[in-house]
Fold each of these.
Amino acid sequence: MTGPSEVTELLTAELMALALDVATETGRMLVDERPAHLGFGTKTTPTDVVTVMDTKAERLLLERISASRPDDGFLGEEGAARDGTSGVRWVLDPIDGTVNYLYGLPGWAVSVAAEVAGEVVVGVVAVPTYAEVFAAVRGGGATRNGTSIAVSSPSSLAQSLVGTGFGYDSRRRARQGAIIAQVLPVVRDVRRVGAAAVDLCFVACGRFDGYFERGLAPWDLAAGGLVAREAGARVAGLFGAEPSRDQVIAAGPAVFDQLHDVLAPLRPDRD
Ligand code: LIP
């Protein structure tokens, strides 16, 4: 069993190489094998969709990772759940931005993270529709297609482009709409990409100056959160909390506090 102090450079390099391979192969499969008429089911609400390709992609990720590391554990959005014995657990979102994929829109991603003793040490977010692969190693920086990336430094929140997202429950969406109505006038503008992992990577490379959202699952946050942090972003919840389903706020040091302080009184961590 590998513990946190035993995260050797060799293990990290192995996990990164595997994460890059499986994320890019799965992204390629999702593009090349997308059926013309994509069927779907629903999960938590009638708008929370899952397609046959979500399931196929998660199965491919599990097969490839297990073939290489049979003793690792898994946590996947589409049901993958296995306790491993190696101390390594893979946190997988086979398609983050499923609605985008279903509608043939850009901005969906394959998100692959590896935890060692419960801490994310490797994260890869493949965004095929942008021909971009974001990657990060804990303590080793973040890259986009192999080139180092860093967060932006806008002069103020009023000059900041901020990403966000909305849940699938209509009551939560009504609350989130009321909150965004308060944020919109005090920032440059808002964008809603539709995939948290992409939003977080956009903060990492400076396409967004900030991002916030309520309701992120571990698989939405794991890889993109590491990429953002390693690119210089602070990724946190409200009032110093860890990022969680309650709230995730990500931004560079130039505007994190300003964005947090606008959000805090609105209590975006509550429905
Ligand atoms: C998506 C999240 C996104 C959120 C969407 C959706 P999914 O995940 O990544 O941040 O705004 O509503 O939940 O469901 O496409 O994997």
Amino acid sequence: MLTVKDLKDLKGKRVYVRVDFNVPQTNGVIRDTNRIKAALPTIQELLSKGARVILMSHLGKIKWKEPDPEKIEAMKKANDMAPVAKALAELLPGVKVSFCAATRGEELTKAVAALNDGEILLGQNTRYEKGEEKNDPELAQIWASLADVFVMDAFGSAHRAHASTVGVPSILKAEGKPVALGYLMIKEVENLTRCVEVKDEDRPYVAVLGGLKVSDKIKVIDTLLNKCDYIIIGGAMAYTFRKARGEEIGKSFLDADSLDYAKACLEKAKGKIILPVDAVATDSFEEKEGRKVEIVKEIPADMEGCDIGPESCKLFADVISKAKMVFWNGPMGVFEQKDFQAGTIAVCEAIKDLEGKAFSVIGGGDSASAAKQLGYKQNFSHVSTGGGASLEMIENDGHLPGVDVLK
Ligand code: AMP
């Protein structure tokens, strides 16, 4: 696969870069510019080589099934890319950054034609186009016709075969034009490939899974059962497995449709799956004065487990302490509430103790924000920028549509 580093003779060339500028924003105020910053190494490399850089990204969601056109317009307005162009310009002083409010047509072609070497044009939110998520060939053709080179740097969108992630590069590739990986993608793909193509020196390999539903993670559990030495399961997911093992789970979250799967999985796992042995349970999920919060082994009928208990913390930390590689996705409890943070903190601490001794990856989404919120982000070897993409890459044995298309 070509990388942005390999690209040469870019003077006068229009380089279409699919970035992930899906930043959190409220009324045009961007709350976190990390995703923009993460794309800067690729952008700067292209600018230094004299390219004319066209950046495209999605932002938020437009629910096209909504029948009321006014509501669609409101969703578009709430996800306008214009403030992102402003934030990008502030991060790149001295570089001309323009913004095009149209996703196709004369306004867009003129804006691209007006670009000079070493300048940037940020396009409007790709999801303003209904055909984006359907990988509409006509739309992909319109965007592909704007570019001489394609660079993929949106890891968080690489599991989606959309017009801007897969449609455009497949057309350009067929036309014999260069398609390449950006720096952010290189880092993500390298680190996650290590969790997929497991080397002997990375064993014991321990996966830590948490979060809500077993059904969301069935494929990843199956894949990890074949790859890992141990799979630690915490979070709400653990109660479906504990129920499958015949334990009392009270009012804890149960993914009833996955109960048979959980049973079969435990049999197949032959001891590889490590489950909690106690829990922090409550009689009220809602954080209110006077609610009961207790450490219990099995969950009483009127309570629900919201975190792993202290014995489970010790058990999990002990398994993690032997690991040479850890992949983690999903918090151990309702980390958003102070009463139920201890399990997620215990896993963070155990991984922190591995620093310099083992390779650790945290897979985006809620777990990465938990690690960040609790102050442990820097203790991981790699914090993935894509929750869904990192899970899918593991599930599909290293394959992602947005990467495979570049091969
Ligand atoms: P997921 O998106 O599947 O990774 O789930 C993350 C969410 O699961 C977080 O918002 C947690 O608060 C929630 N969660 C984790 N453990 C529990 C639990 N024991 N009971 C209810 N929710 C939980």
